[in-house]
Amino acid sequence: MSGRSHLCFLLSPGHWWTFIYITNPMSWLSAQSYCRAHYTDLASVSNMAENQKLDQLVPTAAKVWIGLFRDSWKWTDGSNSLFRYWAAIEPNNDKGNEVCVAANMEEYGKMEDWGCEWKKEFVCYTENKFKKKRKR
Ligand SMILES: [Ca+2]
């Protein structure tokens, strides 16, 4: 299908994680709704290894919504990861109105706060605890 691509990786033994890159630009809230309806949520990026997966998946010129937003910075999926990878001068809360976070792939996924109403491509995730496949 056009409009999306994805990348699966093993988070820990038996624990798969998939990032799904959605190329239809949406506001952060619409992107969150879309991810929750079709996958688990907007992507949480919890460490440099996951940031590198994001970097592998999303083309360099893109800025993509991820699951981080300001409420003293929280991940929308409830993850308590303290990983932050801010770009220089970010978060700057420009015009006092920047509550949602995009990863700037031109800067290897560094994070920038943005007004949530901007329409951007985004990355969802889904989580699969590995089930042993039985051969039939
Ligand atoms: Ca900013």
UniProtKB/TrEMBL annotation:
<dbReference type="Pfam" id="PF00059">
    <property type="entry name" value="Lectin_C"/>
</dbReference>
<dbReference type="InterPro" id="IPR016186">
    <property type="entry name" value="C-type_lectin-like/link_sf"/>
</dbReference>
<dbReference type="InterPro" id="IPR001304">
    <property type="entry name" value="C-type_lectin-like"/>
</dbReference>
<protein>
    <recommendedName>
        <fullName>C-type lectin domain-containing protein</fullName>
    </recommendedName>
</protein>
<feature type="domain" description="C-type lectin">
    <location>
        <begin position="19"/>
        <end position="125"/>
    </location>
</feature>
<dbReference type="InterPro" id="IPR016187">
    <property type="entry name" value="CTDL_fold"/>
</dbReference>
